[in-house]
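Structure tokens please, single chain.
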Amino acid sequence: MFGTGWCGAMGAAGWLFMALIWGGFLAVVVWAVLRLFPRGRQGPGEPLPPGGPGTAADLDRRLAAGEIDADTYLRQRDTLTGAR
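Here you go.
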């Protein structure tokens, strides 16, 4: 029944190659889904993690990385601490 034609002509190497192709395809699909929907997002009402956005530690990190200048740092730091 399967001695000739599509199934029998592949042989063991063909089946292995087909399994590797499907495995690679599924791995790419899983990778894409994980990149589109990353875990660890904040839900409404959940507290921010330490050092997360909107904290003094985040401001320190952004200043050290050069994302903000010193004036912006001081202004936002004063806003966070309520100094003004």
